Amino acid sequence: MKLTTFEIVVIIAMVAFGTMITRFLPFAIFKGKNASNPYIDYLGKVLPYSAMGLLVVYCLKSVDLKGPSHGIPEAASILFIVLLHNWRRSTLLSIGGGTAMYMALVQTLF
Amino acid sequence: MKEKIESLKAAFPHTIPVFTGFTFLGIAYGILMNSKGYGVGWTALMSFIVFTGASQYLAITFLTTAFNPLYALLMTIMVSARHLFYGISLLDKFKGTGALKPYLIFGLCDETFSIVHSSEPPEGVDRNWFMFFITALNHFYWVAGSALGAFLGSMVSFSIEGLDFVLTALFVVTFVEQWKSQENHMPAVIGVTCSALSLLAFGKDGFIIPAMISILVSLTLARGKKDKAASESGVLEEGIE
């Protein structure tokens, strides 16, 4: 803890402000316009699916394929999640199972 | 009052995976904050008013290096830029939510977005309060989890290495669910491909903005191409729904 209390408060306020800009901006820009705009309407329909793809990649951004584990724990755990989810289709089971497998892999084998 | 309780009951099951994820991730975050000298108070405050995992983890570095508020602001906007997508995706859904709207937007984190976008309340349950309780429950789990983590601090002795994978797992499961629910996989494929290519080209610290731009461009091009067919079948699809 190197910062003064005032500096900590300023940093927290900045991080909160930055986050709120990204959350409120679309609603501020497209206030009431979206219904009459087919392009925004189209984006609203397709973007969530693209955004989820972006989020998956975002979570994996620090995986180093050339590193000591070559991304094997991540790849194996994701494959496991997909198979498990196709089989039982239970969200909790898939998330819990995949995470447990990943923790076991990185703590023991890799 | 009764309708609010009904909405809460309907919302809760949808948030169970987030409860698990946020409890563990929150505890991990709290432990980390504690190790840097920030106790329960700072951790809970941060989780309450910022409420976004990635930026809060990142903010630990702002709090432990030289004071630079502008850098903190710009980095946060970069890391949270994906939230812009959620807003655009939910413009319609949040219409007519009235007084609840500012809070729904404030609490629009990744997990809340994925649930709010993909779930509908059961018959007879108020949609606005349903979305409100999903947001509020997730918000609560995160604040409580991180405060607990800061409290536990150095008491934890077992290894939590790899625990943060719970978030990846949540997104992968949501991705699979969305994939199964859609016949048109183009948006999902564009999302993964553009993001992966941007990551390769720009590296992990600078790929979000190029990924978002390339996704928007690709989706726009894909629309232009299919415009004629889509305008016909689109009407047809909506008619069937």
TrEMBL record, chain A:
<dbReference type="Pfam" id="PF05437">
    <property type="entry name" value="AzlD"/>
</dbReference>
<keyword id="KW-0812">Transmembrane</keyword>
<protein>
    <submittedName>
        <fullName>Branched-chain amino acid transport protein AzlD</fullName>
    </submittedName>
</protein>
<keyword id="KW-0472">Membrane</keyword>
<keyword id="KW-1133">Transmembrane helix</keyword>
<dbReference type="InterPro" id="IPR008407">
    <property type="entry name" value="Brnchd-chn_aa_trnsp_AzlD"/>
</dbReference>
<feature type="transmembrane region" description="Helical">
    <location>
        <begin position="6"/>
        <end position="30"/>
    </location>
</feature>
From TrEMBL, chain B:
<keyword id="KW-0812">Transmembrane</keyword>
<keyword id="KW-1133">Transmembrane helix</keyword>
<protein>
    <submittedName>
        <fullName>Inner membrane protein YgaZ</fullName>
    </submittedName>
</protein>
<feature type="transmembrane region" description="Helical">
    <location>
        <begin position="188"/>
        <end position="221"/>
    </location>
</feature>
<feature type="transmembrane region" description="Helical">
    <location>
        <begin position="129"/>
        <end position="151"/>
    </location>
</feature>
<feature type="transmembrane region" description="Helical">
    <location>
        <begin position="70"/>
        <end position="91"/>
    </location>
</feature>
<dbReference type="GO" id="GO:0005886">
    <property type="term" value="C:plasma membrane"/>
</dbReference>
<dbReference type="GO" id="GO:1903785">
    <property type="term" value="P:L-valine transmembrane transport"/>
</dbReference>
<dbReference type="Pfam" id="PF03591">
    <property type="entry name" value="AzlC"/>
</dbReference>
<keyword id="KW-0813">Transport</keyword>
<keyword id="KW-0472">Membrane</keyword>
<feature type="transmembrane region" description="Helical">
    <location>
        <begin position="12"/>
        <end position="32"/>
    </location>
</feature>
<feature type="transmembrane region" description="Helical">
    <location>
        <begin position="44"/>
        <end position="63"/>
    </location>
</feature>
<keyword id="KW-1003">Cell membrane</keyword>
<comment type="similarity">
    <text>Belongs to the AzlC family.</text>
</comment>
<dbReference type="InterPro" id="IPR011606">
    <property type="entry name" value="Brnchd-chn_aa_trnsp_permease"/>
</dbReference>
